Amino acid sequence: MFDTHCHLNFKAFAGKEEEIVKSAQKAGIQHIMIPGTDVKSSKKAIELAERFEGAYAAVGIHPHHIYKLKVKSQNLKVREELLEIEKILSHPKVVAVGEVGLDRHIYKKTVYNDYQVDEKFVALQKQFFLMQLKLAHKYKKALIIHNREATDDLLRILSDNRSLITDCRMVFHCCEPEQELLDFAVKHKIFLGVDGDITYQKDKQEFIQKFPSELLVLETDSPFLLPEPLRSKRTYPNEPKNLKIVAEFIAKIIGVSLSKLENITEENSKKLFQLN
User: Fold this and answer.
1) Whether 9 contacts 48, CB under 8 Å
2) Residue pair 155/89 in contact by the 8 Å Cβ criterion
3) Which of 241, 169, 235 lies closest to 20, judged by CA?
4) Chain center to CA of 156
5) What NCBIfam families is this protein classified in (predicted)?
């Protein structure tokens, strides 16, 4: 199996990465994609991908962390950050740009004390997303797209830049249950990432019934989105080994065998990241 989104580079796993990877492999997860969320975590993703067989890295700036660039010299900072990302894109373990996108959610827990989402901040997110979209296209990398409460903005940018969309080279990470996203994904052959929250969100359980199997990929978003029944037991953090729980749940609700689902999603994941 292939966990297409696991933040093994986050502090929740610091010093325990080898143990986490071994547990995942024992559960049948042989491939792990480690996305960056800023320059530092992107470089850490590469270090970990080098350490473990079957691990790969994505590099990019998450929309939430663009907040630190909301300063007077933001244009200079934007160029500096993007240059750092571009420098590491050529590393052989880097197969994607991500996690990038748009985010209008107001976070209660954040490293930014004065965090607020205003139109100036959203405009900077849009600028950064488009630049990273162009980088993915230029270097022929997959694109891992984050979207939270910003579907209209996201689809407008993608629609206005159709020439940058390559079939089967993008994924809507932890896809929100919105018909507009599904319609756009089907039209442009964009993969749809499904995580542990499907085990407790009924709207996502209904939403996945509409998915074409050829666009489905599985994620844990570790250390987040712990699936049930582990969520009720509060056995944090989430780990890539729990992808098996997500797969078993999905196989049951869409009516396919677990082995068939595993084969389909692994092939889809390899196609997304061009690993065949």
Assistant:
1) yes
2) no
3) 241
4) 20
5) YchF/TatD family DNA exonuclease (TIGR00010)
Judge whether 137 is annotated as a binding position.
no
Q: Is 188 annotated as a binding residue?
A: no
Is 206 annotated among the ligand-binding residues?
no
Domain count, the chain: 1
- CA torsion 275-154-247-35 (nearest 10°) is 50
Cα 32 vs. chain centroid, distance in angstroms? 12
Q: What is the pTM of this model?
A: 0.95
Q: Is 160:131 a contact under the CB 8 Å cutoff?
A: no
The alpha carbon of 21 is separated from its chain's Cα centroid by a whole number of angstroms, namely 18
Range of the domain at 211: 2-272
In whole angstroms, give the CA distance from residue 195 to residue 275.
Answer: 22
Q: In this structure, how many other beta carbons lie within 10 angstroms of the beta carbon of residue 208?
A: 19
Burial of 202 per CB tally in 10 Å (0-12, 13-18, 19+):
exposed
239 belongs to an annotated ligand binding site: no
pLDDT in tens, 63-99: 988 877 765 455 556 678 889 999 999 999 999 999 9
Q: Is 173 annotated as a binding residue?
A: yes
CATH of the domain at 64: 3.20.20.140
| 99 appears as a binding residue in the annotation | yes
Q: Which residues of 86-124 are buried (b: 16+ CB within 10 A; e: fewer)?
A: bebbebebbbbbbbbbbbbeeeeeeeeeeeebeeebbeb
What is the four-CA torsion angle of 163, 166, 167, 170, rounded to 10 degrees? -120
